[in-house]
Amino acid sequence: EAISRYIDVKQAQKSEKDRQASDKYNSSLGRRYCNGDKSTIPQIVAVLNGGNSKAISQLLDDLEQQEDTEGKSPLYLDPAIKDKLFKLLEKEQLESTIVQFTGYNRVDGYIPAFENRLVSGKSTDEDRIFFWLGYAGSEKAVDYGISQNNIWLIQNLDAYMDNAQEPVKQKLLRYAYGYLEKNPIKKTDIQDI
Predict the structure, then answer these.
(1) CA-CA distance, 151 to 149, in Å (whole number)?
(2) Is the Cα torsion angle 51, 56, 59, 63 positive or negative in sign?
(3) Residue 62, class by beta-carbon neighbours within 10 Å (0-12 exposed, 13-18 middle, 19+ buried)?
(4) Which helix H or strand E contains 184, and what residues bound it?
(5) Distances in whole angstroms, Cα of residue 73 to Cα of each of 142, 144, 163
(6) Residue 29 has pLDDT above 70, yes or no
(7) What is the pLDDT of residues 127-165, one digit of tens each?
(8) Can you tell me the distance from the alpha carbon of 110 to that of 172, in angstroms, rounded to the nearest whole number?
(9) Are 91 and 125 in contact (CB under 8 A)?
(10) CA–CA separation, 11 vs 33, rounded Å?
């Protein structure tokens, strides 16, 4: 009897704690926006303008789509938020965070924003940009990767081959064959794997 009451009390405490955590999460700025509260837009823009990496990361965690990336539809954000996010790609200390969030969530407009950042030659996160553009089958990324002889293009070859248009795939295959011709795989390379 006493053990049952103890278990009931502990379960009730856990349920209350879980409810409070859920309430706190759902009342956050990002979750309120995701739940349709457009009055949060100026506050979200202010956080993004503030440049505080920790606050921005927390905001992006709260804005994150909850479903899996497979078959994920784009995340449509208010233009003021989206424009500010893409502008933050230029901030070296935030670039990888913004690339991961906007790529993972397929934020509407991420493809041209990533392509522009990539070809600017100023990106500090080319590997992730190539990765996400691979899922978009970006010809601009392929052309840039080939012109720069960029290894990230080869390392993300499978994504580009799965998602690019046929002429882009042919361009990639020619590049890959040429790359392998210039950089043949040695027996020791395979043994190291």
Answers:
(1) 6
(2) positive
(3) middle
(4) none
(5) 23, 27, 15
(6) yes
(7) 999 999 999 999 999 999 999 988 888 888 899 999 999
(8) 22
(9) no
(10) 32
**Which letter does DSSP use for residue 119 in this model?**
H
Distance (Å, rounded) from C-alpha 40 to C-alpha 87?
19
Question: In whole angstroms, what is the distance from residue 69 CA to residue 131 CA?
Answer: 14
154-159 own/partner pairs: CB under 8 Å, 24+ apart = 154/179, 155/127, 155/130, 156/130, 156/131, 158/134, 159/131, 159/134, 159/135
Under a CB-based contact definition with an 8 Å cutoff, are residues 41 and 33 in contact? Answer: yes
Nearest to 130 by CA among 147, 115, 109, 113: 115
Nearest-angstrom CA–CA distance, 132 and 163? 11
In terms of Cβ atoms closer than 10 Å to its own Cβ (0-12, 13-18, 19+), residue 92 is exposed
The whole-model pTM stands at 0.79
Identify the weakest region by mean pLDDT among 36-40, 49-53, 141-145, 177-181.
177-181
In this structure, how many other beta carbons lie within 10 angstroms of the beta carbon of residue 45?
16
* Structure confidence at residue 193 as a pLDDT band (50, 70, 90): low
Residue 180 pLDDT = 83
- For residues 129, 134, 135 and 141, what is the CA-based torsion angle, rounded to 10 degrees? 70
Q: Which two tokens stand for residue 69?
A: 């990336």
